[in-house]
Fold this protein.
Amino acid sequence: MGNTHSFRADKLFSGYDNKTIIQGIDLEIPKNKISVIIGANGCGKSTLLKTVAKLIKPSEGDVTLDGKAINKYPPKQLARILGILPQSPVVPEGITVADLVGRGRFPHQSLFSGWSKKDYEAVEEAMEFMNITEFANHDIDELSGGQRQRVWIAMALAQQTDILLLDEPTTFLDITYQVEILDLLTSLNRKYGTTIVMVLHDINLSARYADYIFALHKGELVAEGKPSDVITTDLVKSIFDLNCVVIQDPISDTPLVIPKGRYHVKS
Amino acid sequence: MNSTTDSKKRLDLHFPKHFTIILVIAIILLVVSIITSLMLGARVVSYQELMDGLFYTNQDSYGANVVRKRISRTIFSLCCGVALGIAGVLMQAVTRNPLADPSILGVNTGATLFVVCGITFFNITTAGEYIWLALIGASITAVFVFGIGSMGRGGATPIKLLLAGAATSAALSSLVTAIIIPSAYAQDQFRFWQVGSVGSGNWDSIKIFIPFLIVGLFIAFLSAPALNALALGDDVATSLGIRPGVLRFFAIVAGVVLCGTATALAGPIGFIGLLATHAMRFVIGPDLRFLIPMSALAGAIILTFSDVVGRLIASPGELEVGILTAFIGAPILIILAKKSKVRSL
Ligand SMILES: Nc1ncnc2c1ncn2[C@@H]1O[C@H](COP(=O)(O)OP(=O)(O)O)[C@@H](O)[C@H]1O
Ligand SMILES: [Mg+2]
């Protein structure tokens, strides 16, 4: 399985009000792969993700899907191909898991149609995939942070898009849940060929789970490529202003960044 | 597991818990409210008179005629309740603010001001003309309050909207008073209308009401799934293929039409939307595909019962329903505002 959508941005500038954050970025998202955007706090990762997802209008440049600018698509049609899970979505009070996941079906329903068999199946499949079926009729408020995040991802899965963008899906989770979420997203990518682009704050997990890395610094794309090519001592120094050594991750053979602070350095 | 239990389980998941039983209870309450509204008041009618009045047009007893007069009042009150219930749920969905209600946001004070201006300066006397003034007043106020409430950081937060609404409402109320005080004629015209009442409801007002009610209901029902998505935040909604601005516009138009029409015909009746929506959200949860129709039902029930109570406690006169709903609604608003859990939806 897989999808053949070409998804790219050309000479992209965007930001808020008069403040330009993204400073002329060109990128082509690799098909059927997991791409991870890395960079320091405030460098514009979320802004970039939102701009390519049409949540922010670029001040210059284009985001194109299959050669057509994304703002030229009817919104629902675009929403059947491209989905984004933003960093802090709103949780309505008292909503159940099944209700929330079901809201991901919106772009597949027309104004007058109710729920079809396909809608129910998609919701069940998404809940099954994220291992939340047992909570289906629970209130979201009753769940732990890790379970809750799985519910949100299930909502995005129910949308059944070929391209899925996620902004820091693992932030604020314990390490166990971080690995669990990233494993689930990898299964998703392997099973359906979903193109995944996400922002992660942990560089080592990024290096392990990414097929492709985009490194951002002050709104510019400073490096891109396979983790083993991109993540180097020099890159970490330039984008995070951190001295480090990069060794090989004993589990995955991917780069592993070991930071050097001022203390605890053996002489 | 066979396929019928499977599909039943499937449906149950996407229905509010205990939905059937809640619907049955609501319908029973509705029927009871209708029957009491027909039977109770300054003149309490008997069961026989009720039946005569409803089904035997040739029966011409006093009691039967009382019932017949109360039919239009009751239907009118149901229409107002439905309109205000839905206006409330729409305002809350659009602002993602559980405290939003046409009365709290000042929308029906805006409608009132325009109607008063019409009465005072243009000698407007018919309900058909009130409506348009009320709608214009309600729209302008809605735009104004949302405008002020959205200024500054964080967009239209619950507390900012509430303050903007309260301030606007207070300012508009004082304008209303300033306009009617010098005019004896307006005071006269306005007195029966100043406090919301369904007592003046007759077949003519129902006929004027129906088309607006249908338009409002139609928009509300069609936009329910999209408003469900909007409840997850503007970003998620956009990602699901919604244009939040367009959706908000239509939902506010529907809310303003419903609330403005009810205000024009019955006078300002507050808090119905707030009470109906909260009661229903408490029992069936936040899914707007169910919450919108159920709030309509709850609005009709609450308003009709309030009207009956108003007739009973001030018998042989009657207490306007607008006063009663304010008495019940205001303390509940305070409780809700204090409950930290509902600070945002
Ligand atoms: N809604 C906003 N309005 C104005 N400025 C913003 C907004 N969101 C983010 N910014 C600013 O844009 C810059 C980049 O933010 P962001 O893209 O969120 O960074 P990152 O996700 O890489 O941490 C920051 O300086 C931030 O302060
Ligand atoms: Mg960010």
